[in-house]
Each structure stands twice: as structure tokens, then as C-alpha cells.
Fold Non-homologous end joining protein Ku.
Amino acid sequence: MRAIWKGSLSFGLVNVPVKLFSATEDHDVPLHQVHDDDGGRIRYQRKCEICGEVVPFEHIDKAYDDGDQTVVLTKADLASLPAERSRDIDVVEFVPSEQVDAIRLDRSYYLAPDSSSMKAYALLRRTLEETERTAIVRISLRQRTRLAALRVHDEVLLLQTLLWDDEVRDAEFPGLDEHPRVSENELKMAQQLVESFSKDFEPEKFDDEYQVQLRQLVEAKLEQGDTLDTDETFGRESDSGGGEVLDLMEALRQSVERRRAGGAKKAPARKAPAKKKTPTTKSTDAASAPKKRASAASRSSSSEERAPAASTPKKRSSGGSGSRKAAS
């Protein structure tokens, strides 16, 4: 794993050098939007509604719209705000762990020691365990101050960012104030039912069935030859204009011209499948297990890159920086 933040954890006069790692990752099959008629890649452009020009990213500002008026906030305006760049995680207080409601939890990160000395890290970890307390801390992530909970999880310090109080909505629904009478027999029977389902939670027993069947469907189409050539259908991104991409209409126009030109290379038509298969009945053992794909953070950037020729989709590796294979 690659650290996304480095700094120090401070409580009192104790200073612990630490590194922050994302504790979760996304393993969804990467899908693109394509034209249903010819399989061409759909791309979106940052186009100005007034002049109609495609605007490079460096010329894009932010704005607030109150419904009647729009306030433009330039990069200089935003730079004037007191951006937080502290490299310290400051412990604000220690609270009983049961008081931190799960509804307030946002993103999770592992906090690992960043020095050869483990003593201060181990001391805080053991103290939190034995006192059954959670540290409420402040941390600067992406130039914004975040409130977070720091607790112990599987022998490592786990930092979970918290939603601010005004971000949690009140549960105000009709009927919640009513208190219908529940008999002792009904309550006893319900408790027995709960007891019959009671087990220790083992998350590894549960799979994302949708993603499993989606992978099987993609693999079945690849084996049948029901594919398109990626270079022909996905086009190319432009190297100029701050991230501008090939205009969809221009790509379609060029495709039509190639088809009209007798000697020009035509975009391949869809190949007829060798034989019909039922993807959902395909055994997962028959296909090689796809490798893990990279984390959600790298997925957002790589999804805009031109996909290579279609092949069996693979999960990204945990440190993966390689390009992903497109599921066409």
C-alpha cells in the first residue's frame, strides 16, 4: 500500500510519527459508456454554454448559484481562504467508544508508525484498548480540516473521518412518535426468532453476487468472440487543450468517411458468437480468477485513459498503477 499522508500524531507532549493508508478499496468491474449502434466510446467535454468552446481545465473556476444570482469564485478567491496544511493529527479529547455513533462515520484509514521506534505508537494503542476510549482528533486532509475518530482495530490504529454534526439528518418521520402496545408473548416470540438467526459476523462469507455474475458475463462474451476492436471503437484522447478529448461528432464523422472510402479501413462489425452460452451458469472455476484491481483513488483517474484491446477483465492489484482492461 502507498501512504496518502505523512505527519505526526500529538497528544499532550507525546509525538508519534505516522503514515496514513486508505483502509478500503473498490473492486467493481470497470465499465464505460458506449454508443449502442457501433460501440464507440462516449466522452464528455467541458463546454461553455455561452461561447460553445471546449474549456481547458486551467480556465475553469467555481461558482455558487442561489437561484437568482451566480457568484463566481476564482482560484485567487479560494486561495485567500485559510487552507489548512498542518502535518499534525491533534487529539482533542478521549470519549467512551460507545458514544461515537456509526451514522457519523465516513472514510476509514489505517494509521501506521513512521519511525523505527514503536514505543509511543504501542503505548497509545494499548491505552485506547484498556480504557475502551476513542480519541477524537483533528486532521488536515486535502487542505481541509476534518474531525475524526481514532481507535484500535486488529492491532493497528484506525482513523475514521466523522461527519460534522449538521451533516447528520434528524429522523423525523410520521408514526415514529406512536408507541403501539406489544404483548409479552409477541416480544418473547420475536426474541426467539432473533436467537435462531444469531451468529458471529463473518464478512468473508458474503460475496457481491452482482459483480461475480457481471464478470462471468464479460468472460463468456470474450470467449464467444462477441467483442469489438478497442482501438477502432474508443478513439483517442487529444494531447492539447488541458484534457480535451476527441469530439464524439468528429469521431462519428471520421467513421462515416472511412466506411465510404472503399480502400479505407473499416471499423469491424460485431463478430457472431461461436455458440450461445449462459453466462450465469458458467462456473467460476472454469475461468481464471481475475486479479484485484487498483484502489478507488486510482480508478477515477485511469477510467479516462484510452482502454487497451479487450481481454478478460482483471481485478486490480492492491498497489496497482497499471492500466485497466476495458470491458467493452
Notes: The mean pLDDT is 77. The two ends are 29 Å apart (CA to CA).
